[in-house]
Amino acid sequence: MDVQTHRGNLIMNTATMAYRNLLKTFHNPDRFMDVIIQPIMFMLMFGYLFGGAIAGNVKNYLPTIVPGILIQTMLSAASGSGSQIREDLDSGVFDRFKSLPMAHIAPLAGQLFADILRLLIATVTSLATGYVMGWRPTAGFGWVIVSGLLAIFIGWSLSWVFALVGLLAKNATTVESFSMITMMTLSFLSNAFIPIKTLSKTMQVIAYMNPITYVITAIRQILSTGSWTHEAVLVLIFGIGIVVVFAPLTVWAYNRNN
Amino acid sequence: MEVINAIEVNHLTKKFGNKIAVDNVSFNVKQGEVFGLLGPNGAGKTTILRMMTTLLKADRGSVKIFSHDTVKEGRLARSMFGLTGQYASVDEDISARENLMIFSRLNGLSRSASKQRTQELLSEFSLVDSADKPLKDFSGGMRRRLDLAVSLISSPALVFLDEPTTGLDPRTRMQMWDTIRKLVTQGSTIILTTQYLDEADQLADRIAVIDHGKLIKIGTPEKLKQQIGGTKLNFTIGQVSQIDPAAKIMTDQLGDSIHFNGQQVHASLKHTSQLTPLLVALQQAGISISNLTIQEPSLDDVFMNLTVGKN
Fold first, then answer.
1. 3-class DSSP state of A228
2. Residue B113 has what pLDDT?
3. B295 phi/psi in degrees, rounded to 5
4. CB distance from A59 to chain B under 8 Å?
5. Residue B55 to residue A92, Cβ atoms within 8 A
6. If exposure means fewest CB atoms within 10 Å of the residue's CB, which of A160, B132, B275, B281 is most exposed?
7. Of B228, B233, B217, nearest to B274 (Cα)?
8. Which is nearest to B64 in space by CA: B81, B45, B77?
9. How far, in whole angstroms, is CA A153 from its chain's centroid?
10. pLDDT of A109-149, one tens digit each?
11. Running DSSP on this structure, what letter comes out for residue A197?
12. What does each C-alpha distance from B192 to B17, B39, B58, B180, B203 come to in angstroms?
């Protein structure tokens, strides 16, 4: 009985906390920068700048760059999780949460639930921008949704990593610069924007060591072949593995601080 | 009827590294009492408050809120009090109404009960007109009012206020005092920290003076002020020839707490009611005085006095 009320409490509290995070986002349109403005801007810039050079024309470049920017956007949306948690922890409002008779873990859980919506917005924006630019994936709409869901899941698993960074870091600025560097390195040192075979040997090794390369490859394969490939299975396992490792670590760090 | 303790603090101790922030502090606060923790910055007031409100774990000692241990029965203890932190503990990015709604829900109120409570508190704290404005446009006083309103959502029997008026202008401070007094008449027990003696004096039934993590003195404001020698009286005697007769009159009335420095006189009053007879007597003796000042004891005096030889 007692356990049930606690569990009910946890779900309710988490829903309220997620609602709070979303409200904060809607009141502060600049929090949409990374999930709306950034994918649109990058898609247009990279598409029209490099399309001709890399793939002959913009339209031929889109199957390469749409999955690339989709995953890049997932990375930056996920990294927002860390700085938001740090900001909350550093503000007085967190003391209030801790002094309430609410589920202890709800603030963290609420953040990670709200992240799913941010990731969803980012995915829709990225794919829609590609569509407007003329991207027509051969696999059809159903597989676009599948690839979108896989991207969101990978993004969400990375949210746990960034949340851990947010919990361990000294302040929000540290988290933001760490996130920026990670996002840039992982997305550019991969096959997000270019075919890997155009790279030097050393760079190829680096790109193949980058897990993001495999995520992008899996998404491209789903979109071009219309099937759940071997690569996609590996990527899904990779995402599950991250959650299995980092969720307990993040919860541990959260409990340790509080 | 047995007196119920709203809070019992026993041997509370906290170290940060090598520094002892709170050193074996014990006190009880009775239900319905207003209790002030008075001390300078860094004395350990906020650390004590954070341990009482379950935000910080004590190294040693225990806190019981309405006889519920804050460690063993944390959730139950937390349901019994409201806390207004030193720094605005409300969400900056959302409106006053949204803050109240979210915190009502987190307090376990249903959606409709939350709506009703939000409306009640908005009108009680005169925030109806700015209920839907972002908090960025709020003045310091409005923010504190909202903060307090949020702490009172569950109508807690015990309210903690951490420096409720620090940084407020005099008028807003008065308004805050009125609000706190109203809470008292409604039967709340209040524990507040402050660095201002006059604030503790205005509001508190009892004061605990904290310095360097230790509880130095505990008692009513009157008692504390008596201990530090009460009100200070300073004036200048008009002519040198009048010093001796003045000294005689003053010694008769005030005892030996008088110091002369040429024509300047410094004296201590045990009670302000001693002032009028003294001035009348001086006037009747034809002694003219100027530059008269009366100083209520300040926190500085309390500290100078209570921490003598310890620093």
1. coil
2. 94
3. -115, 125
4. no
5. no
6. B132
7. B233
8. B77
9. 8
10. 999 999 999 999 999 999 999 999 999 998 889 999 999 99
11. G
12. 27, 11, 19, 10, 9
CA B6 to chain CA centroid, nearest Å: 18
Give SS3 for A130.
Answer: helix
Give the DSSP per-residue string, A1-19: -HHHHHHHHHHHHHHHHHH
The backbone region for A108, taken as left when phi is positive above 0, alpha when psi lies in -120 to 50, beta otherwise, is: alpha
Q: Which two three-digit tokens encode residue B127?
A: 């925030």
Q: What pLDDT was estimated at residue A2?
A: 39
| DSSP H or E run through A21 | helix A2-27
According to DSSP, the β-strands at B264-269 and B34-38 are unpaired
In 3D, which of B106, B77, B74, B70 has the Cα closest to residue B90?
B106
* A-B C-beta contacts closer than 8 Å: 70
Beta strands in chain A (DSSP E): none
* Ranges in chain B, pLDDT < 50: 309-311
- For B287, other C-beta atoms within 10 Å of its C-beta total 18
Using a CB–CB cutoff of 8 Å, tell me whether A19 touches chain B.
yes
In the structure encoding, which two tokens stand for residue B125, read together? Answer: 């704290």
Residue in the structure block whose two tokens are 């390469």 = A64
- Would you state the structure tokens that stand for residue B62, as one six-digit string? 């225990």
Domains in chain B, start-ordered, CATH in brackets? 5-226 (3.40.50.300), 231-295 (3.30.70.600)
Domain limits for position A222: 2-257
A80-106: pLDDT as tens digits: 889 888 988 888 788 888 888 888 889
Give the count of domains, chain A.
Answer: 1
HEC per residue, chain B: CCCCEEEEEEEEEEEECCEEEEEEEEEEEECCCEEEEECCCCCCHHHHHHHHCCCCCCCEEEEEECCEECCCCHHHHHCCEEEECCCCCCCCCCEHHHHHHHHHHHCCCCHHHHHHHHHHHHHHCCCCCCCCCEHHHCCHHHHHHHHHHHHCCCCCCEEEEECCCCCCCHHHHHHHHHHHHHHHHCCCEEEEEECCHHHHHHHCCEEEEEECCEEEEEECHHHHHHHCCCEEEEEEECCHHHHHHHHHHHHHHHCCCEEEECCEEEEEECCHHHHHHHHHHHHHCCCCEEEEEEECCCHHHHHHHHCCCCC
Q: Which residues of A touch B91 (CB under 8 A)?
A: 20, 24, 93
Structure ipTM over 0.85, yes or no = no
Does residue A105 belong to the interface with chain B, where contact is any CB pair within 8 Å? no
Residue pair B141/B176 in contact by the 8 Å Cβ criterion: yes
Nearest residue of B to residue A30, measured between CA atoms: B93
